[in-house]
Amino acid sequence: MQDLRQYLREGNFIIADGATGTVLQSMGLQPSTAPELWNVEKPEAIRSLHRAYLDAGSQVILTNTFGGNRIRLNRAGGLGKRIEELNRAAVLLAKEEADGRTYVAGDIGPTGELMAPYGSLSYEVAVDVFAQQARFLAEGGVDLIWIETMSDLNEAKAAIKGTKRVTDLPIFCSLSFGRRGRTMMGTTPTQAIETLWPLGLTAIGGNCGEGVEVMIPVLTEMRNAFADAVLIAKPNAGLPRLENGRTVFDMRPEDMATHARHFLKLGAQVIGACCGSSPAHIAAITEALRA
Ligand SMILES: [Zn+2]
């Protein structure tokens, strides 16, 4: 495998994976169960998820550790004491399936707590929480750290600082933007990139969020702010709606692929999909972008 920073700096693009959470739910994961538990209780399910994305053309796959920080694990039935075991198991599964052919990204999601002054989570504690998870992921042998689905600029910053405290690996950071072109906490793409890109990221952009259309202002604003930034587009497969108590997404793989082509034109170099997407969406994106 080539050096990831170099590969992206040369202007190449890579295809990421699709959803983890919504696919695991379709495999029977209950909303009350922490997805990270499956890294040890149902490893074959996690392997098959990785394999499906690799077969679909993903060149970077995310470990099943989105909620693998101690704050979130503790809320999920006191799993915080198993943080090392659950993160390391996830890395091992992804690495064995990737088998040195594709990049494995250690996934770091938000704590789910509000940061001060709105909530009780202090910046320093947040840095420490993210440093702890990043250390287990890095020691496990991931190729990069991917901080994702962030809404709070301060929390994203804490995650980057925490990661940098423990490893020199490349760091991707993507935030979740809504239809008003801002995160839930009100941050614009311009504010996000102006604060976070100078911290030394390898790639920055948007993931999850309210539909594919929000990626257009995200990519445009970020490109305008930093012409040399490596941009990420990993949106949800359309907008969620409730059907018989279940959240469903409607965007078809071929429509996702059309949008992916547009993201590439707007300068995105890391392209994938988030909630509601499946390996079929990634396969369609691969076909469209490699054509
Ligand atoms: Zn998502």
Query: What is the average per-residue confidence, as pLDDT, rounded to a whole number?
Result: 96
Q: Give the second-level CATH assignment, the architecture.
A: Alpha-Beta Barrel
Q: In CATH, what is the homologous superfamily? A: Homocysteine-binding-like domain
Strand order of the largest sheet: 1-10-7-6-5-4-3-2
Helix fraction, binned, reads 40-55%
Shape: globular
Q: What's the end-to-end separation, in Å?
A: 22 Å
Helical stretch count?
Answer: 12
> Main beta sheet: strand number and arrangement?
8 strands, parallel
- CATH class equals Alpha Beta
Strand content: 15-25%
N-to-C SSE series? HEHHHEHHEHEHEHEHEEEHEH
Structural class: alpha/beta
Cα radius of gyration in angstroms: 17 Å
How many domain units? 1
Low-pLDDT ranges? none
Bound molecules: zinc ion
Number of separate strands: 10
Key structural traits:
291 residues; 8-stranded parallel sheet; two-stranded antiparallel sheet; alpha/beta; TIM Barrel; binds zinc ion; globular
Explain what this protein looks like in three dimensions.
There is one protein chain. This protein is of the alpha/beta class. It has a single domain (4-290), classed as Alpha-Beta Barrel (TIM Barrel), CATH 3.20.20.330. The protein is 44% helix and 15% strand. The protein is built from twelve helices and ten strands. It has helices at residues 4-9, 21-26, 38-41, 43-56, 70-75, 83-98, 123-140, 153-166, 189-196, 215-225, 253-265, 279-290, and strands at 14-15, 60-62, 103-108, 144-150, 171-175, 203-208, 231-235, 241-243, 246-248, 268-271. The strands form two sheets. It has an eight-stranded parallel beta sheet with strand order 1-10-7-6-5-4-3-2. A two-stranded antiparallel sheet has the order 8-9. β6, α10 (215-225) and β7 form a beta-alpha-beta unit. α4 (43-56) packs parallel to α6, α4 packs parallel to α12 and α11 (253-265) crosses α12 (279-290). The longest helix has 18 residues, at 123-140. Bound molecules: zinc ion.
